[in-house]
Design a protein that fits this description.
The structure is a single chain. The chain is an alpha/beta fold. The chain folds into two domains: 124 residues, no CATH class; 205 residues, Spore Coat Polysaccharide Biosynthesis Protein SpsA, Chain A (Alpha-Beta Complex). Helix content is 32%, strand content 11%. Strands 1, 2, 3, 4, 5, 6, 7, 8 and 9 form a nine-stranded mixed sheet that branches. Strand 1, helix 7 and strand 2 form a beta-alpha-beta unit. The radius of gyration is 27 Å and the shape is globular. The C terminus is likely disordered. It binds 2-acetamido-2-deoxy-beta-D-glucopyranose (2 copies).
């Protein structure tokens, strides 16, 4: 059961396993003719005798499971950047192809890992994953074996009021390398159709929902498994200092599983870690603060000093998203608190695999938009809107509390999980110093 659930969750493994041509299990399934039965009984008796005399030999044989060739290719090449995903696939594949010895043919079928719901179907027809690529209505179907060049996904929640800035943003992302998905939270979908790229974007509309609500509902890891990176961005982002292809190149080379472009200093900056550093260099992974409260040194190991990014322009590798998606709570739509836990999805050391790219940076305009309560300015609008914003802000803080509570409880309840980033014990209160 463990192996099966692993296989379902990983990339490319669902299409693998014993080759369909391997008919050994068919030979033994169904009704056996009496002659064969008799033969089997004889074999069994003979086998028992042989066992008595050749225990050693037999046990060695049994310890070496027959390897069934998984001759079907994984449907997509693994991207060079997410080696973790590759490793994951490798492990799963091994787990699946380790079929039991041929002497017990029935187990070949019993041990097959099938994704839940697909048990009634022949394995080869099952497609567990999908994508957002368009198919032409004419032409030749069934050419999916032809390798598509690898792509990433850009997903943005949008309102028609931000059309101009979103147009500039999306236009910066080359169509050959990025699939675009817009989440319309204001329902005004028609207003976008005049833009050149609008027809190649996937449009999803749901009134008054946030980026994390959309992400949880429409970016299931099995739907985005083809994309190397998922850019889940806010809409009020200026990209004059940002080149998406150079960005991909940098995060690939630096091994950043979770990243964001640095924030230009004219941005609304909430956390110093994400501000662009002036001292050249392509990437930074920590910041230093050696006086005042909340200090950060070179030996700091976690947020807010290192190992996290903010939630306005995060970029996830495929493997990191597979993890992060699972951490997003259905009902906590502002996702406050999630950022500090993202490091757990970094596929290794969060102080190495999470970083901020300085050479490709963006300007965060800080316009109050749905889903970012930090930008809310209650004084700037009508009384009713101000009340709405106040409610949003309240809710965000409440969500933060609930999320942290759930995390704590989950940690306490899961005996099989160990924290790779245990909290350092709190410093002893000064009055409690024992006097010697
Ligand atoms: C972008 O797409 C082009 C055309 O498919 C391809 O040649 C190029 O390698 C891609 N660049 C990246 C960084 O994926
Ligand atoms: C980290 O470094 C600072 C300054 O160098 C030092 O004061 C502090 O004790 C160190 N903390 C740990 C846990 O090593």
């Amino acid at each position: 059961m463990m192996i099966c659930s692993l296989a379902v969750g990983s990339d490319g493994s669902s299409s693998q396993g014993p080759a369909p041509g391997d008919a050994s299990h068919k030979r033994f399934s169904g009704m056996l003719p009496p002659a064969a039965l008799l033969f089997l009984v004889l074999v069994f008796v003979a086998g028992a005798i042989v066992t008595l005399h050749h225990k050693e030999t037999l046990s060695i044989l049994q310890l070496q499971p027959r390897r069934v060739a998984a001759d079907e290719e994984p449907s997509r090449p693994a991207p060079p950047a997410s080696t973790a995903a590759v490793t994951e696939t490798h492990i799963d594949t091994t787990a699946i192809v380790e079929a039991p010895p041929a002497e017990e043919p029935a187990n070949i079928c019993e041990n097959q890992c099938r994704s839940p719901g697909s048990e009634a179907l022949p394995r080869g027809i099952v497609q567990d994953r999908s994508n957002f690529e368009f198919e032409s209505l004419g032409g030749n179907p069934g050419r999916e074996k032809v390798r598509r060049p690898s792509k990433s996904l850009l997903a943005i929640p949008v309102g028609i009021k931000q059309k101009a800035v979103v147009d500039k943003l999306v236009s910066k992302f080359p169509a050959a390398n990025f699939t675009v998905m817009l989440f319309h939270y204001d329902g005004a979908m028609d207003g976008w159709s005049d833009l050149a790229w609008s027809r190649r974007a996937v449009h999803v509309a749901a009134a008054d929902q946030t980026k994390w609500w959309f992400g949880k509902r429409f970016l299931h890891p099995d739907l985005v498994a083809e994309y190397d990176y998922v850019f889940l961005w806010d809409e009020d982002i200026e990209v004059d200092g940002f080149d998406p292809l150079r960005y991909l190149d940098i995060v690939g080379k630096e091994g950043l599983e979770i990243s964001q472009p640095a924030l230009d200093h004219r941005s609304q900056i909430h956390h110093r870690l994400t501000a662009r550093t002036r001292r050249g260099g392509g990437v930074h992974r920590r910041f230093y603060k050696t006086e005042g409260g909340g200090r950060c040194y070179g030996n700091s190991t976690g947020p807010p000093c290192t190992g996290w990014v903010e939630m306005m322009v995060p970029v996830f590798s495929r493997a990191a998203w597979r993890c992060a998606w699972r951490m997003i709570q259905n009902d906590l739509v502002f996702a406050w608190g999630l950022d500090f836990k993202l490091g757990y999805c970094a596929q290794g050391d969060r102080s190495k695999n999470v970083g901020i790219v300085d050479s490709e940076y963006v300007l965060h305009r800080g316009i109050p938009t749905l889903g970012d309560a930090k930008k809310v300015k209650p004084s700037s609008s009508s009384a009713s809107t101000a009340a709405d914003r106040y409610a949003v802000r309240q809710r965000s803080y409440t969500e933060l509390k609930i999320f942290n509570k759930r995390w704590k409880q989950a940690v306490a309840e899961d005996e099989c999980w160990t924290d790779p980033y245990p909290q350092p014990p709190p410093p002893p209160p000064p009055t409690a110093t024992p006097k010697g």
